Automatic annotation (TrEMBL):
The species this protein was found in: Paenibacillus nasutitermitis
Domain of life: Bacteria
InterPro entries noted in UniProt: Bact_solute-bd_prot1
Entry protein name: ABC transporter substrate-binding protein
Coiled coil location: none
């Protein structure tokens, strides 16, 4: 524990030294929040007391614990799919208010452009929760958002000692400040914990176990096997769709991915990696054999789900929890059928190539905007959310009501929990609603615990445990995303548009040769648009981050 505190203090010193040399010092002064935006807590909790070097999350004098008087803030959830748009109607948000005094006035995104409209009209709420990288450059500006490190230094100094130094490193902006701490971060040690399983947000192939049994349980060990099974379905069940894609796992089965990945010290766009055309050739083979419907490419999730729940789909791909969700729906609505995920990745030409590289930096950002009249209280509220107490409450629920802990540190849900919706409890089987400060580790415990409480609907646990050996983390990929509006950012946007334009042509091509021809055209178009420049930028940023982290570790180790 003492070593971790030394690392954090050293990191704070490094950040301070960076600020001293920063050319944006005039703007950074504005971020301190003194004066007009400091609100009612300006003098409440402003720290002049020495920091206790032995402070822990259980210490009685944490800043968030010193002021739990009732207060309210506006908050925007930049997710159209978020299942809740109000505060205080579920048990967890009620408990958060009880412990912290905080109430949120929630606005949920009605469409993907709503936040951009709010920015253009200068009508931002106190808090903005978004994972869209296009907004990072805008919000990581002292004119727009409060810097966490400055708020922490002024109003919650012990908080810096309690933060993971790697998280501070990962979230520090170019100006030396950090304006957010991404949710769902998982350290390497936490990822490797045997109790922890990966998050469910990975593309997964699911299929109807009952129909598979009727087919005689044919092998599904290779990509060719899967095509053969789909053909058997088409022949025996002509009214069924053999495969309905949404999130498509075949690219990762082949060892490729659509997001940037590192190969040694070089970063490449996954679809431009040599051999990636094989993915499109495979999808085209599925299409030419009538195994996937052409219209799947235009389906929104609701349409995709409606077709699946008609009972006329053999296989579908979405996230890891998809089979459990459909099995519950089928059982509730007396629909015949049982779904299961494919737990072993298929081989390619006799070789296991499945590989998934994920950034370890986390998921979503909570920004405290300059619209917030009480940033002191906001940072204290975030301190609570980052604490084990707040993290457990937001992701697991209320202990004794929504769960008890087993001897092996997993969750046991009571029967009453299964009867509640996420809108009633504030937490569901896989995640919690108010996860602004959530850790990836506690999310992993949630997923690993499903079999304890609901074994009938726990196929995702088996699947995620089976997939863990094929997943690795790379925190430096977090630094490769170009800023919106930069030359590289514009190139990236154009390349994404190129991919969207060419993909349907490749998948629906009449021959394999035509797929290759269109793929080469796409690759050439990407190169003309600036792919080499983008990959050069990403590679430079990747290696720069590795060097900075190496220097950081060396300095903190020697301090």
């Amino acid at each position: 524990m003492r070593q971790k505190k030394t690392l954090v203090l050293a990191m704070f010193l490094i950040v301070s030294l960076m600020l001293a040399a920063c050319t944006q010092s005039n703007n950074n002064t504005e971020a301190s929040g003194s004066g007009e935006a400091s609100g009612t807590s300006e003098t409440v909790g402003s720290s002049s007391q020495p920091i206790d070097e032995n402070v822990t999350w259980d210490s009685p004098n944490l800043s968030w614990k010193k002021d739990t008087t009732p207060t309210s803030m506006t908050a925007y959830m930049d997710y159209t799919w978020w299942p809740m748009d109000s505060w205080g109607n579920d048990e967890v948000s009620q408990e958060i208010t009880k412990r912290t005094g905080m109430t949120l006035d929630i606005t949920k995104a009605s469409d993907e452009n709503q936040l951009q409209v709010m920015i253009a009209s200068n009508e931002l709420p106190c808090l903005v929760y978004t994972a869209n990288p296009a907004f990072e450059k805008y919000f990581e500006d002292p004119k727009v958002s409060f810097a966490y490190d400055e708020l922490i230094e002024k109003y919650a100094p012990e908080f810096m000692q309690l933060l993971d130094p790697e998280q501070v490193f990962l979230n520090t902006s170019e100006d030396g400040h950090f304006y957010r701490i991404r949710s769902h971060y998982t350290s390497e040690a936490e990822f490797n914990d045997p109790k922890n399983v990966p998050g469910p947000g990975m593309a997964t192939l699911h299929f109807r176990q009952d129909i598979y049994n009727e087919l005689g349980n044919p092998p599904m060990k290779t990509l060719d096997d899967i095509i053969n099974v789909f053909k058997m379905v088409k022949e025996k069940y002509p009214d069924m769709i053999p495969y309905l894609p949404n999130w498509i796992p075949f690219m990762e089965y082949m060892g490729f991915q659509s997001t940037p990945k590192s190969i040694g010290d070089k970063v490449t766009i996954g679809l431009a990696e040599p051999g990636a055309v094989a993915y499109y050739e495979y999808m085209n083979e599925l299409y030419r054999n009538g195994l996937i419907p052409k219209e799947y490419m235009s389906y929104k999730y609701e349409q995709f789900l409606e077709v699946v729940r008609s009972g006329k789909v053999f296989a579908a791909s979405y996230n890891a929890s998809f089979s459990d969700e459909q099995n519950k729906f089928f059982d509730t609505n007396n629909i015949k059928g049982k779904w299961t995920p494919l737990n072993t990745p298929p081989t390619v030409n006799g070789e296991m190539k499945m590989k998934r590289i994920v950034p370890s930096g986390g998921w979503s950002n909570l920004y405290i905007t300059k619209s917030c009249p009480d940033p002191a209280r906001a940072i204290k509220y975030f301190e609570f959310l980052k604490s084990p107490e707040g993290d457990s409450l937001a992701q697991w629920g209320i202990e004794g009501v929504h769960y008890t802990l087993t001897e092996d540190g997993l969750l046991k849900r009571p029967e009453s929990f299964q009867q509640k919706t996420i809108q009633q409890a504030g937490v569901g089987p896989n995640y919690g609603l108010w996860n602004f400060g959530a850790s990836g580790y506690r999310e992993g415990i949630v997923n690993a615990s499903i079999a304890n409480s609901d074994p009938k609907y726990a196929t995702s646990v088996t699947f995620l445990k089976a997939m863990k050996p094929y997943i690795s983390q790379d925190m430096f990929i977090n630094f490769t995303n170009p800023k919106s509006g930069s030359d590289e950012g514009v190139i990236q946007t154009k390349i994404n548009q190129i991919i969207l334009r060419y993909e349907p042509k490749m998948i629906t091509a009449k021959t394999k040769e035509q797929v290759d021809e269109v793929y080469n055209e796409m690759l050439e178009d990407m190169k003309k648009t600036g792919l080499p420049k983008l990959e050069e930028y990403m590679t430079a940023e990747y290696n720069k981050a590795k060097q900075k982290y190496s220097e950081f570790v060396q300095k903190t180790t020697n301090s």
